[in-house]
Amino acid sequence: MRSFLLFAGLLVLLAGPRSGAAQGAGNGGLPNVFFDCEGRNCGDDYYRTEIAWVNWVRDRRDSDLHLIMTSQTTGGGGREYQLDFIGMGEHTEYADQLRFRTLSTDTQREALDGIANALGIGLARFANEAGFRGIVRLQGIDPAGIDPTARLVSPQEVEDPWNLWVFRINGSTNLDGEETRSTKRVNGGFSANRVTPTWKMSFNGNANYRHEERDLSEGGTYTIDRRDWSVTQLVVHSIADHWSVGFRSESRRLESVNQKLRFEITPALEYSFFPYEDATRRSLTAFYQIGPAYRRYFKPTAFDELAETRWEQALELELSLRQTWGDAGITARGSHFLHDTGLYNVSVRGNVNYRIARGFSVNARGDVAWVNDQIYLSAEDATTEEELLDLVRRAQDFNYGIQIGLSVQFGSIFNNVVNNRFNGVGGGGGGGF
User: Residue 182: what pLDDT?
Assistant: First the structure.
């Protein structure tokens, strides 16, 4: 009941003594918190400013509490944030979890305020159990004008004229250029989504127009004129705690891959080895789909086809982890045409960010794919201009990419100070966690 939240503010008081050996050197009797967040609304400066009654530290090994924040999109277009509070050091037995939802209509400030309030509640609960005294106090909201008998009703008691459907329409246009080049783009799209505990339905469409003119150094003008569009539908039903069934259909026009019209419908089945509720922290799923795809081409393909219908099947395994040591994910996918199993596509991609020791972490990401299913490519060779501007997909047997990095950090463990002067110039003082 949000109207009666006891935690409208968690205000700083004079720091009281901290019990036992829990008090770290130089931390002023405040809990050391390591904030672990990547993605939407991870703005470190905002939370450090709003919650000044903890010590934000740069390494989890220096912390009393490891705070992990993850999020996922809700059916109404907002986000659900999961906050996991994991004790460190002598508090290793402590574990707590909170969830907070933002609305699609929330401003950025409203979303950040709500997240900060949820973070503050969770941190206060830890401070209370871990023996940090006198650092926060509770302040209730002003009860004036509030009916004490008011309450929030359940979804079953609400008459929703939209029946949980959420619609969006968007469009944009832009013009840019220079003396030897001009580009015009027009984009538009729509979506309709409905999500319930057992059903997930999504309908999306977009259209893109691009007109570009380039003056060539040897004389003349090269013109690009592209009109592409797509319409996709997804319907998913939960049939058991770990099983889901559904189908996906797609219609599109995409000139870069020689497809004047593509239509496909693919029933699919998914199994989740972990409960779906754990998806933001750990997820292991197996996904299988099979179905026909019709293609009509701009130009004859290498197989001398102007139109064809082919059945395809695909299997995908995906593992995603976000733990106290870091995060990692790997996806393996294989697909092939049923009329010729030699026309296949196998790919593996993954990433890892691992904290090896205090202030030292390594990260790596990579992908590799073996491609032998490009039946849609034109038999004609691409022009030099099309190759240089990447306007036409070219035949390939494989593709790959790899990135490896490391990070070493040392110095003060504390990260409490916020200084926004000359913020756009760069430099120290406003760094992240």
Answer: 93
